[in-house]
Amino acid sequence: MKLVTKDDNFFFLLGSLLVLFFLSAVVHQFKDDAQSYVLALLVLCMSTSIVGVHRKQTFYRSWYAVMLVVIVTSGTITLFENKDLSLVTMSAMLCFVLAQTYSALKQVVMAKKVTLNQIVGSICVYLLFGLSFTFIYLIQLELFVDPFNGISHKPWLDNLFEVIYFSFITLTTVGYGDISPTLAIPKFFVFLESITGSFYLAIMVASLVSSHLAQKNE
Fold it and tell me: Gene3D superfamilies this protein is in (predicted)?
């Protein structure tokens, strides 16, 4: 059996994302008023994803560490000091996820040959797109009054899984209709995510196939 090496860094990221999505669903379904659990889960999964970042990439590691400190500090103050720093926490998480998305996309696109790590990386990028839009929608829920039908105004940690669900059915263009945007700005980001999901799949699949054929011919 092939061992996971430092070159298989995307496995750490994929694992942390899948754990985050599944456990947030479990907490949402079985645990009421579990904001502290959800915040701890987010921090744990983000910390795990950093393990897969190459040690030579000191800039990315430092950036992720700073964002995690901001997330932990602002989130703790919001939960226990009765001061609402939700926008700070969500903005830091959005910056963290966008940095992960850029780094992963860069590695996938610039890879010289198709490997299992590259394929896993392309899956990670797709999941990171959905997670990025999740935090964009959560920020809009804080800024606007009733920007979405089907999502009531609650602390953002209580709404996290519902917004993750909405983000991914939008990214995949499934659109069940149980949650929908009501304002112009949320509608803009919804169709932007739909376009991103459709074009990413088409472009990435074509790129992987052409790279594999070229690699096979060589």
Answer: 1.10.287.70
